[in-house]
Every structure is written in C-alpha cells, then in structure tokens.
Amino acid sequence: MQILRWLKNSKITPYLLIIIISAITYLPHVNRLTYYRDDWYYMADRFFGGTGIFHQMFWVDRPIRGYLYDFLYKVLGLNLLPYNLLAYFWRLLSGILCYWLFMVIWPNNRKTNLWIALLFTLYPGYLWWVAGIEYQPNIIGLCIELFSILLTVLAIAGSQKLWVKFILVTGAILTGCLYVLLVDFAIGIELFRLVCVVLLFHRLKPDLKFVGFCKNIIQSWTVYLLIPFSFFIWRFVFFQNRRPETDIAFQLSGLKSDFLGTIAAWQARTFESFFNVTVRGWLNSFYSNYFSLEHKEMLTVILFGLIGCCILFLVFWQKKDMANKTLENGDSDQKWQLWAFLGGIIGVWGTIVPIVLMNRTILLENLSHYTLSGSLAGAMILVVLITLIKPEKIQLFFLAGLAGLAIVSQQSHLINVIKEGEKIQVFWQQVALRVPELEEGTTVLANYPGIEFGDDYDIVWGPLNFIYLNQQDAKYYDGAVHYPYSGLKQNYLASKDALVGAPEGDWYRTHAFVFDYGRLLVLDQPTENSCVHVMDSRWPRFTLSDTDQMLLLANSSNINVIKKDGSIQVLNPIIFGKPEPESWCTYYQQAELALQKENWQEILDLMSQAQKNGFVPGDKVEWMPFLQAALYLNDQSLIIKIAEEIKNNKFLRDEACRLIPAMRENGYELAPSIIDLGRTSFCDQGS
Q: Tens digits of per-residue pLDDT, 19-34?
C-alpha cells in the first residue's frame, strides 16, 4: 500500500505510466511484424538502386526525407525490427513531451494532463504505426512538433535570462521548420501552437482585459510566424515541386474553374475529416479489426486491455471523490474547460485545413497518417468533455475504458497486420519451391488469401524481385530502378488492362516496370487452407473461393515463363522469415513442378511420401496433378481413390473431367480404358 501511495504522488509516476501503458499497447509481438505495404518498395528500391536512391525518391516533394532514410538504412539495413522499435520510441517520447507541455500550461491539472498525454499516445485512429519504415518521418515529425511547441511555452512561462529565452525561441523556430520539412501537410499544427500560447496566458494573466490579453499574445506569438512564412517562401520561391499531389498551386486551381463547387467540397471534407479524427478514430479500428480475430486472439487482446485498465485504476482510484482542483490563478473548472474545449476544436481544425485544401479527406482506412497531428488536440477535447462528468469515479471509468479500448484496438490491428505479413511470407516460400527461376519480363498477378491490397501492388512486385532478381543485375537509370519482374494491382483496371493489353508500363518515384501480358503468370492462394496454385492456362486449378479476377485471367497464365530446370531459390530470412515446416504444400509444389517437367512417376512418388508423413490436401483441387499422373500412368486404383475424395463436389468433378480432353489436346496420349474410367468417375456423375 505504501508503494501504491508513493506511486500516486510521485512526480515520476506520469512518465512511468506513459511508458508502461504504451509498451503494453505497441510492443507485444512487435518482433513478428514484417514489411507492410509500401515498406516493400522503400527497401526494394534501396537494395537494388543503391546509395542515393532515397534522395532521388524525395527530391520531387520532401527532399529532407532522403537524408533521413539514407541515414536509417546505413545504420539499420533491411532488418525491420529496429525501425519498428525506433517508431515506438518516437511515439513514447511524443507522449512524454505532451504531458510536459500541458504541465507547463496547467501545472495544477496533473491528472487531466496525464490523461490527455495517455490518450494521445494510444490514439487508435492512426493505423500506419505498423509500417515502421514508410511512416518513420511522420512519427519523428510529430515528436519534433511537440518539442517545438514545448520550447515555445517554456520561453513564455519562465522568468529566464534573456539569453536563455533567446535559445528557447530560436530552438522552437528551428525545430518548427524541421518538422514541416519532414511532414509538410502538418503545417496546420501551427494553429495549435497559438492555442497553447492563449491557454498559457489565460492562466498566467487572467485579469487582463481583452485588448491587453490580445496584445500580450501577439507579442509572444508573432515571432513563430517565421515557421509557416519561411516554409511557404521556400516552397513557392526556391523549391520546384514536381508532384501534383503536393503542388499547392495545382491543388488550388479548382477555385478558378468552379469556385462555389470547390468551396462546397472543402466544407464537406472538413466536417467529415473532423468527425473522423475526433469520434470515428476512437471506434473504427476496434470495429474493423477486433471482430476479424480468432477467439483465442480476442481473449488475448482483451487481456492486454484489462491489464492496462487495472493499472490505470490502481494509480488513479481515490477512496473518496475529490472535486477537481482549480488552477493556481483561481479560475473555475468550467472556465478552463471551456477554453480548452474551444482550443481543441481550433487545434483539430487547423490540422485538417491543409489536407482539405489539397483536395483530400482524412479517411481512416488508408489515410490515417493525416490524423496524427490532429490527435493531440482531439485527445484534449475528449478528456475535457469527460471531466465535466460527475462524480470523479465515473470520469475514471470513462477514461480508463477509452484507454482499454485503444489498447484492444491497436493490439487487434497489430495481430491482423502480423497475420497478413505471415501469409505473404508463406505464399512466396511456396512460390520459390514451385518456380525455380523466371524469365525476365514476367508480369505476375497474385492473389493472397484474405488480403485486399488494391493499389498496394508493392506487396507483389517487391517480394517477387527480392527472390528472382540478383542485386548485381539490377538496372538503374533515369532516376529509377527498372525491374524485370512486374506485378499487377488488385482491381478491375488491372483485369481490363490485361485483357486488352494496355497500358504497357508504370513508373512511380524511383521504380519502373514494363507490363508484358504475353508473359503473364497467375499465382493464386484462394484460402489459407489452400496451397499456392501457379496457374497453367492448359488446366488452371479453380476453386469455389477464387475471385472474379482469377477466373478472368488464369486462362492467360503462361507457364513457360518458368525456367523449370533452375535451382530452388534460397530466401533471405530477414525478409521472408524462417522456412515453414514441411507440409502437404511442400509436396504439392514439387509435384506441380514435376508435372511441368513431365516427370510423371516422381509425382506419384511425392504423393506416397506425403501420405506416409501424414499429409493430406486442405483444398481438394490439389489432387489434380496426382490425378493427371494417374491418368498418364494408367493407375486405376489412384483414379478411383481421387474420385472418392471429390465425389461430393460437382465443381471439382467437372474440373477433373476437363483434364481428360485437356491432356489429350496437349499431346498426352491416354489409354482408352483410362479415358472410360475417367469419364465414368468424373463426367457421368449426377449432380
């Protein structure tokens, strides 16, 4: 009890609490994270493009990021774990700086300040923290933003000597300029700097009349306008932007062509973005991620949430309800809460405006990095509203419940991202067994089980080139790595382009591809229980779970791009993880490769070995290569056995039936008795 009493009153408790709760939220399983989405292209371009690639990557819009990534890669290399640990460190440091900032503004509101810092640190609306490579600048920028604002309030609040104040102001301006160079769309947080100055003066000089109050604020804050002014001067005068998405003049051009329509669109985006940052951001991650977990995983994340809640209750619980302390200047609770609430609204709005002016909306599904700057003011709004609830114990239930919800949401998201990464690793480990080598110019369409990657086709061409492209053979010219192996996006446009044969290529930042639909290879894993099916247009392995895109394009899959006599690829464990233990798919992939080589007896030997080791197919379409070997080698008993396995699945029976004419059309002679048996077993069955 004495330890608990000491913890409740110690000055280091808030910092310990931020460390413990954030560690519970972000660190479990962090070592299991793999490259996530655009992380693939960052690492692939650097690996194959060499030194200087990051400078080329960002010179078009944010050149300072090139220096950051160049340094990080030289120190950390391809290993993902240090990037993720570093991202966590910046997130943790941001939470500590947040608490320090509000303790300068409201030194007597220790509990409130700690809750703001905690909820800001845990904010579940920001989902890209699992991409420790791509979004490293964002989280570093946030930390620098907070440090800059902290220096501002310290310069105003203290009674330092003139030279100390000069150092604080100069440091605030320099760090402010640095963060906006890293994250240009976060320029709107400068409005929150003004909010913090106003809140600080509201505490320091509450008796000033309105004119005097405004005069003091202007005198203290005006110097920090150097940050946005210097940014805009650099952006418009000295820097030549070459990316439309970050070209301010281009994005504002809509005002000329349709002034009222553009204004109307901006106000709609503003309201939607504000709602997403302040309300939906707290709920969406839980709804989107928790219910897709398995039952054991649900219990695990709930346990983490309960542990976090219990710690918070132990620290904050009081035997008797205590009225909120007033600020040292004597303001009433209601008055400071009103100022803080209005300041929070202005702070969130400020971070939204630059994004809306760039004709974007803050969407949590794929643009959640835009929520990061606004999450600070958003947490302030939320905590201030909850402090209006009486008694104080009810406040604690709400606040601890929100923290617990955030922990569960972030843990659920983490587990789903880990599972996605592991699926991708297993997928390519199987492909490496089935596809020893690939002809240059191959274009791949890949279907991962349960993964909707849309335009993030980096997760196809990235691992593809890491496997089949030798680093010394990579071609870098015209500012881009020209990859010999390309991937297709997972959308209807990719299907249409493949069917009509256009477009011929793609180019983004520092990588370029040529699409050759005559060299299309379709890779399909319809479910987690399935193996990867490398589609052969002569007899594609269709299942009921296949997507429309697979059904459309599998018949165009050219198996001849596979160099079947090459050696099996040895995968980099840093990228693709440890090799999966032997399974049915190990034998299935070898059997499909043997089928391509026309080693018929080897196929049957592989099946015997798989069965001897206790392996059976999870997806019964995987009997097909063994059925083809049985048809060719006149193995009637195996044909009958496979027919028994699939007798209740008309879809598979039809597929087996189609194998007989397909094999004959491709020059494989079958005995008349085997043809009759095959037709009887698969083609003449009733529905």
A: 999 999 999 999 999 9
